Amino acid sequence: MTQTPPTPSGPAAWWREAVVYQVYVPSFADSDGDGIGDLRGVTDRLDHLADLGVDALWLTPFYPSPWADGGYDVSDYRDVDPRHGTLDDFRELVARAHALRLKLIVDIVPNHCSDQHPWFVEALASPPGSRARDRFIFRDGQGPDGSLPPADWQSKFGGGAWTRVPDGQWYMHIFSAEQPDLNWENDEVLADFQDTLRFWLDLGVDGFRVDVAHGLRKDLAPPLRNTAGWDAAPLNSPPQGDDHPFWDRDEVHEIYRAWRKIIDSYEPPRIAVAEAGVSAARLPLYTRPDELHQAFNFFFLRCPWTADDLRKVINTSLTDAHAVGTLPTWVLSNHDVVRHRSRYGLPQDTDLTAWLATDGTAPAADDTLGGRRARAAALLALALPGSAYLYQGEELGLPEVADLPPQALRDPMWERTGHTVKGRDGCRVPLPWTRSGTSYGFGPAGSWLPQPDHWGDHAVEAQRGRPGSFLELYRAALSLRGRFRGDETFAWLHSREGELAFRKGGLECRVNLSDHPLPLPTAAPVLLASGPVEDDMLAPDTTAWTIPAHA
Prior knowledge:
Blueprint: E1 2-3, E2 19-23, H1 39-44, H2 46-52, E3 56-59, H3 87-99, E4 103-108, H4 118-125, H5 131-134, E5 138-139, E6 162-164, E7 170-172, H6 187-202, E8 207-210, H7 252-264, E9 271-274, E10 294-295, H8 298-301, H9 307-323, E11 329-331, H10 340-343, H11 352-357, H12 367-383, E12 387-391, H13 412-416, H14 460-463, H15 470-481, E13 490-492, E14 499-504, E15 507-512, E16 518-519, E17 526-529, E18 533-534, E19 537-538, E20 542-546
Parallel strand pairs: 2-3, 2-12, 3-4, 4-8, 8-9, 9-10, 11-12
Antiparallel strand pairs: 1-13, 5-7, 6-7, 13-14, 14-15, 15-20, 16-19, 17-20, 18-19
Helix pairs in contact: 6-7, 12-15
């Protein structure tokens, strides 16, 4: 199978094969000693990203926020939260990033805002049926006295998706009660977000990551339809052909067609990437030529570590992306999932929520196996045509911190589920930069989430220049990857059972997912391998990049 994308790459399409580094702002670097990461901290550490060899960084929300959900509850979309700095700090960050030839992508959170946003404060002070309430989704309750929710819709963070206000009406929130959903049928909402896009584009950002991109439009025609638990899985849309009242509705694409016109009006070219937890058949709709440029590939992130499963996901991802003239993204971790080093060290059928509830003890993760597979997966992802999104700390091989004490947990899932779901804090523990120190170089004081005692062993300082370290593997891979950009042609090669083998342009990649060594092609020089290669044999859970023997 050979696949050649229909759209050529070039300077105007820098994003097609970019490596984008996700900065979870609260946990990247703290410049002022309050224990929370900030924009100056990011600016101070940009040399690390430039040295690593990435093309862009994506900042999670740094906007004013009460922090009910780590900044994803925004109270002002056009400013900087004082705990993260100022607009001048942001301008300095943009300038420094561009001086280092790094693109800068920012998060935009359009599905919901904070309950402390001026609009929602106004809505609570206004009567039912008012203009202020129409910016949100307020409805009368069911039952003789309206004491029952308007529908059985469930929150992704646990419990119901409706909260009652003193005058008796209810408002909708797919996530926490502090994150009321906006009404995207309201013209003021549409216009205000278009102004927000222009505000950040005018400040020089190179693109947007669109949070919950598949959730903006809802079927609000009365009576609201019940779902009977249909929407219980986090960030998951129904299968193709099913009509869900608030996930992945066709009307959402009208919003992105309007956004694309704004984005395309700026030079140099800017982009937008969708976080859309939808079915594989529906995902390409978000990246049609007149909509968003990319969408996160959660199918690859969730794929079991087997050759057959990975081959299927890679084939589907490439075919579907090519059908709309784009390329896939390849993602292994992010701020919402257990880090892949730990996932790969667990049995594939492990319930990760239950595993976290045991502080990561049942079952015990095989960290050696997880580390080996994480290295192999990194070279696999970086060899594929398309963009790779790296989550901060994966270049250090960070594991999940599964044993955070209950009193340290900040994820709203913990409270909303009655202390049964620990949530996502374990992948958000602040980065270690130095071997020692109060917060391992994260900042001049402590950190907002506790760092484990072994954190310094993973630090940038401990790994830089050390042969075989995670950091040096990523640096080498990103440097080599740049040599093979521009030719997006992909072809599977002959492979043995338990092996993936493919060619991307002039690079060949082989991944051994079996339980025994496999021979590499003779006379094919090994450029880079995720583990030792002895006697031209590729060890289990190891990836090698080679040059074709005839080259």
